[in-house]
Amino acid sequence: MSFHRARRQFLHCSMTGAGGMALLNLLRRESDGAALRPRAAQQISVEKVRTAKIVSGNLAVTFRDNSYSPRILSGVESLVHLKDAPDFNAFDPDSIGAAAGLNFEHIISGHPDPANRFTPRYGRYPLFKLPDGKSVILVRSQEDCPWAVSSHLKYTVSPPHYIDLEFRCKAHEPELFGKRGYAVLFFANYMNNVAEVATRFRGVNQRGGSEEWIATDASEPHPDWDRGGTYRCADADDVSYDENHNFKLNLWSYDQPRFTKPFWYGRTARGMVFQMMFDRGCTSQDQIRFSLFRFKLPRFPRPAWDFQYVIHKVEKGKEYGFRARVVWKTFASADDCLGEYETFQRFIAATAPVSKPTV
After folding, report:
1. Of 151, 173, 261, 286, which sits most exposed with the smallest number of CB within 10 A?
2. CB 56 within 8 A of CB 81
């Protein structure tokens, strides 16, 4: 057994590691939010919690740490619109081990490795409430990740109906990602009952085609299809992977259709819409991809409306990341969803990015 293999197996099983103060120092060191810069960090206090409920605007959102994972997943446990659907959780409230939103699910390389499956569910991922009263952050140190990737997920609930997400990460041993050198970071949204399985985005059905609304339900088979699939940006290349890879279903993507604007929406029960928007589609450094899986269908109308963040070539100590926004409100129209995306783009332009994409 290689040193790295033994190390990864040990870290995969370990639920111990640096204490709360070390994690807090990691948060302060790696976050570029003004409230957490080194000088300001001396004056602030953050509270380590297992769960946190934030009410802002029309939303009540409950966040959870990794204490009980994989039985109970980290991320967003409950997302409720207090005005229009006060008794309806956007995310599956029933399926043990598959009920959460904005949940960091996988880190996947291009070669077979046991750590390709579900490793963010294991190890420490403590949750901190930030002093603004509307934000929480999950923090993982490299010692608690079998890929030696440190990361954090910051969630901010903003009126009237938004969750803003900031993700940042660094790879400290990029050689773990092998000769192909890329990393696919996968995030899951296990939805509650939906009105339509399909999600919709602005895209093209063929190369050089005109932009239009496209409905996608990932039902078209592929040699590595397993009840779902992935869609990529119009300018993005697919990723290659070893023939004997042990987790292919999240690596391949459809050649067509492709999205032209980095957002999608889906219609759920109770007349609601769940929409996700991103600050980038594809750059020379990274890309966003959209995934949809049908594991709970047809028994339950509860697809997984997921997304991926792909780093094309992992470099040691380099910071990567993206920003995203969730909209949870009553569905009005496709044009209204496009308007939400345009509002988000103005918000991104007016605020400092987590990391500047290389175009």
Report:
1. 173
2. no
Q: Do residues 288 and 262 lie in contact, with contact meaning Cβ atoms separated by under 8 Å?
A: yes
Residues forming beta bridges with residue 78, ordered by sequence position: 62
What's the pTM value of the predicted model, to 2 decimals? 0.88
Q: Which domain holds residue 19?
A: 3-350
Strand residues in the chain grouped as ranges (E): 47-49, 51-56, 59-64, 75-81, 103-108, 127-129, 135-140, 149-158, 162-171, 183-188, 194-204, 212-216, 228-231, 258-259, 263-268, 272-278, 286-293, 304-311, 319-330
Classify residue 92: in a domain, yes or no.
Answer: yes
Residue 75's H or E segment, with its range, is strand 75-81
Q: Could you give the CA distance from residue 233 to residue 202 in angstroms, rounded to a whole number?
A: 10
CATH number of 54's domain: 2.70.98
pLDDT per position in the chain (359 positions), as tens? 333 443 343 233 332 333 334 445 555 554 433 334 433 333 457 899 999 999 999 999 999 999 999 999 999 999 999 999 999 999 999 999 999 999 999 999 999 999 999 999 998 999 999 999 999 999 999 999 999 999 999 999 999 999 999 999 999 999 999 999 999 999 999 999 999 999 999 999 998 899 999 999 999 888 999 999 999 999 999 999 999 999 999 999 999 999 999 999 999 999 999 999 999 999 999 999 999 999 999 999 999 999 999 999 999 999 999 999 999 999 999 999 999 999 999 999 999 755 444 43
Helices (H) and strands (E) counted in the chain, each on its own, are: 4, 19
Q: Residue 286 domain-assigned?
A: yes
Residue 359 lies in a domain: no
DSSP calls for 152-175: EEEEEEETTTEEEEEEEEEES-GG
Distances from the Cα of 308 to the Cαs of 75, 292, 305, 321, 329, in angstroms? 15, 11, 11, 12, 23
Q: How far apart (Å, rounded) are the C-alpha atoms in residues 327 and 275? A: 5
Report yes or no on 67 lying in a domain. yes
Total domains present in the chain: 1
